[in-house]
Each structure stands twice: as C-alpha cells, then as structure tokens.
Amino acid sequence: MIHDDKRYMALALTLGRRGQGLCWPNPAVGCVIVKDGRIVGRGTTAPGGRPHAEPQALTQAGAAALGATVYVTLEPCSHYGKTPPCAEALIKAGVARVVVALRDNDPRVSGRGLKMLEDAGIDVTTGVLADEAAWDLKGFFLKTDAGRPFVTLKLAMTLDGRIATATGESKWITGPEARRRVHAQRANHDAVLVGGGTARADDPSLTVRDMGIAHQPVRVVASRRLDLPMDSVLAKTARDVPVWLVHGPDALEARKTSWSVAGATLLPCDLNGAQLDPGALLTALGAQGLTRVFCEGGGSLAASLLQAGLVDQLIVFTAGLALGAEGHPGIGALGVQKMAEAPRLKLATQERVGDDIMSVWRRP
Q1: How far apart are CA 70 and CA 123, in angstroms?
Q2: Which residues contact 86 (CB under 8 A, 6 or more apart)?
Q3: Could you give the CA distance from residue 328 to residue 166 in angstroms, rounded to a whole number?
Q4: How much is the pTM?
Q5: Taking the CB of the first residue and of the last residue of the chain, which one, N or C, has fewer CB atoms within 10 A?
Q6: Catalytic residue list
Q7: Which strands make up the sheet holding 243-247, listed edge to edge?
Q8: Helix, strand or coil for residue 28?
Q9: What is the pLDDT at residue 187?
Q10: How does the average pLDDT of the chain come out, rounded?
Q11: pLDDT in tens, 231-266
C-alpha cells in the first residue's frame, strides 16, 4: 500500500507541475483517482485557477469514483468561493479514501478539508511525498505565509562570472540548447522579472518563444525612476502581454502617465537606500497574486535579492568562455567583508545542456 501510495502521488505531483505558471493566485495541484488498481481520473488545476484538480478528476472518473482512492497534492478546499468546496465534491462522489501530500496553509482551509472528509467516514492519509509537494507548492505557501512569491534567479555567465563584455555585448554567452531551456523555465513561472538596467541595455521581449504554448508570463521590470525607453519592445507590446513596472516614489509623473497610456500596470515600491527595497518589491508582486517569479537579472537586482536572502532557487548556466575583469559581473556588489557574510546556497542538481553546464542551487 505504501509503495502504491507513493507511486500514485508521484503521478499527481507530475500533473500538478503542469499547472505551474498558469493558475496563479491558486496553487498548481494534481489529482489522481484509482479504482481497483486502475487510474480512472486525472486532474490539474486549470488555467486561471478554476476548476480545481479534484472536480476535473471526478468528472473524468464518473461513476467509477464510488469507492475509489483519491491522491491529491494539497488538502482539498473546504470553503465556498467561486466554486463549491472540493472536499464536498469528493464526499458526494462517494470516494472511500483520500491520500493528501500536504495540509493547506490557507486559514480558510487548513485542516478543515481533512476534517470534512473524516467526518463523512472517508479514510484520510496525509504526508505522502510531503517534501516533494512542499517544494512544488512553495510559492503558494510563501504568498500565504510571507506575502511574497517564490523566486528563481537565473544567470547565464562565463567561466569567470561575467554576463556581458565591457561594451555591454551579451548575445550570446550560452548556446541554443540553454536558451531553449530558459524559455521552458519562464513558462512554469507566473512572471519574468528584470531590472531597469537590463531592460535598457537588452531591449528584451521577456516572452516564451518556440515552445508551442499559448500563455505568457507577466513581464515585470524593477525601475526606480521608470527611465525606460518608450520605443522599446515592452512598451510596444504592453497591451498584448502584461507589463508590470515596479517603481520608486520619485518616478516622474510624466513617465508614469506614458507607461499607463501604453498599457502597463504600475506598482509603487519603497526604497532601501538608493535602490528599490527587494522585500517591498516582492511583497508588491505577492499582493497581485503572483506565486512564482523568474528573475533574469541584471547584476544589481541579483545582488539585492541575494543579499536580502530572497532567492529560493538559483539557476546558473555556465558557458565555456571568459571575458576578463573588464566584463560586467553577473552579480553586483554585495558588501561582503567576511566569508560568513556571503550568501550560501546548496547544490541541488547539475547537468550538461548543449555545450553549457546548468547548476541548480537552493536556499538551505
């Protein structure tokens, strides 16, 4: 039974990951329904967060749900929102057992969904593959508990940690395989974030391309003064794919007006010294419902997030070339005086991607 529980929960987790980047502010949940050793229903939180995974799996299962076992990566909801509670739907379907990876931390649900199921005579098991589920759903939990999204910082650097030549040239440090992988990583986050310097220097589109998907992440630029060119790709396409601009209190009204007219959403943010406060920046994004943010630099923004301990996952693509000390560093000044003060992450995985190396580091 334990082996089967883990096997089916692993499948539910895989299904849940398909919703990452699509269903914010809701969590990306997966559900599998099993009857007599056969999978009769599967579900993933739908784009936009509705419907939830459980009712989709129940619809697929139909009458076979009676007496079945349900595997779901997060506690079924117990409150009435835009849709009836998933716990109630499971009870009405007559399922015999529900296996849950994690209890929900949303105070409207936490423990109540499990109690509803138990009170209805359903056998409930919790904690199956809980660590894996906790990592997949960390953005949702962070938004609920800390008011901020999960942050992945991605850096594409040379062997000596540079992201551009002395003249600012940066295309291309890594190869096509690594760049394609980055597009896939953008796709499973709610938003792509860059600093104003990167937006000015690279004129990026920040979209997902050549992946065969219809949705696009929100494009976010952190720019204290909003001194961004109005003839940029972002300005020209702000009505096609959302552009959010996080700015300081000293941004000129004329610039705010220009970007609003272009179709961008403006989010004010407090300062920390001469820069936008990284914690306030993420809180502003969390207040908009974002659960997962993919930050692509530049160096100053990367440094501020690392220094504040706000990077949950660091993905580094390392290419086999060197630009020397005159090149632009991937991470700006951190003010580290002692080794103990340096941000330290733990290596999770490392693999070859084309001619480059991708290292994934996580905050302990």
Answers
A1: 10
A2: 52, 54, 55, 76, 77, 113
A3: 6
A4: 0.93
A5: C
A6: 54
A7: 265-268, 243-247, 218-222, 191-195, 292-295, 150-157, 313-318, 356-362, 346-353
A8: coil
A9: 95
A10: 94
A11: 999 999 999 999 999 999 999 999 999 999 999 999
